[in-house]
Amino acid sequence: MADVHPTVEAVAADIAAMETRGAAPIADAAADALRAQARESDAETPAAFRAELRAAARHLLDTRPTAVSLPNALRYVLRRVEGETVEALRQSTLAAADAFCSQLDRAQDDLGQVGANRLRDGDCIMTHCHSTDVLACVEAAREQGKELTAVVKETRPRNQGHITAERLRDLDVPVTLIVDSAARRYLNDVDHVMVGADAIAADGSVVNKIGTSGLAVNARDRGTPIVVAAQTIKLHPDTLTGHTVEIELRDESEVISQEQRGAIGEIAVDNPAFDVTPPRYLDAIVTEHGQFPPESIVTLMRELFGEGTTEPWAEPADRRSTGSDAGTDP
């Protein structure tokens, strides 16, 4: 097995232990780990250097196989590794990692500016769950001098809407907090529904906190535009090849206590964390690269992360028989 640099080991351990958490911090750490692997590699041949990078990527990927931003960081860097010598490969890896981290560092601010352009002075928005990307849009709009108000869904069962309400008040946005089931009643008074995303599929479907899909259906029925604010690290290239996004089922204790369970009697309790909103219910996806109709997000996905069926960290099919790498992908 190719050598994995100690920095890669340390980053992988932090991600696995959830010491490093959140889409952007995980992506940044993964790119930084590949940078360290490339910088310190003592590989003597291009084939050995590529093999080390692939091994490092697989080691990182194994820590959180269902995360979206982690493989995206690895794809971005590995698909840009080019050169015929070890030093050329090293320099292109460093340049790709630097470019990814630089874009990531300014992504939320850039996204906020794009999203703020959709908001007019005096608009009222409705939010669901807690999204720092949505808040970036609101913050940019406030910096432009726009007055906004917000209707915030509490977002059961963990009440992440309370966090959103607090952050909006920090931005001097008047907030009305409502129970989730009251959303339809307030949609006629709302100019935009703004939500984040945990993942975005190639067809423009959006995976987000449970309840997003029902809100989108109601918003469409009421004629209220619904906008998704999400950095491109939330794009899910695996869906290009037909993979589906796994929906996490969380512990029932978030929904019902043991005492309540005992009082009710024998029941089944499901607690899905996310749902999938089809693109036909969405008006736009706002990213740091601009806003897109949901159905066209696949173009951006291919541009950033490629569209091959073979992932860049996979072992070349003919390596065992030839002893060398095939093709140009690392």
Automatic annotation (TrEMBL):
Q: Name one GO biological process term.
A: L-methionine salvage from methylthioadenosine
Q: Where is this region: Disordered?
A: 307-330
Gene3D superfamilies under this entry?
translation initiation factor eif-2b, domain 1, Translation initiation factor eif-2b, domain 2
Show the GO MF annotations. ribose 1,5-bisphosphate isomerase activity; S-methyl-5-thioribose-1-phosphate isomerase activity
Q: Which InterPro entries match?
A: IF-2B-related, IF_2B-like_C, Initiation_fac_2B_a/b/d, M1Pi_N, NagB/RpiA_transferase-like, R15Pi
Per UniProt, the keywords (alphabetical) are: Carbohydrate metabolism, Isomerase
- Indicate yes or no for the key word Ribonucleoprotein: no
Q: Which residues form a coiled coil?
A: none
Question: ATP-binding: present as a keyword of the record?
Answer: no
Per the record, the similarity remark reads: Belongs to the eIF-2B alpha/beta/delta subunits family. R15P isomerase subfamily.
Q: What is this protein called?
A: Ribose 1,5-bisphosphate isomerase
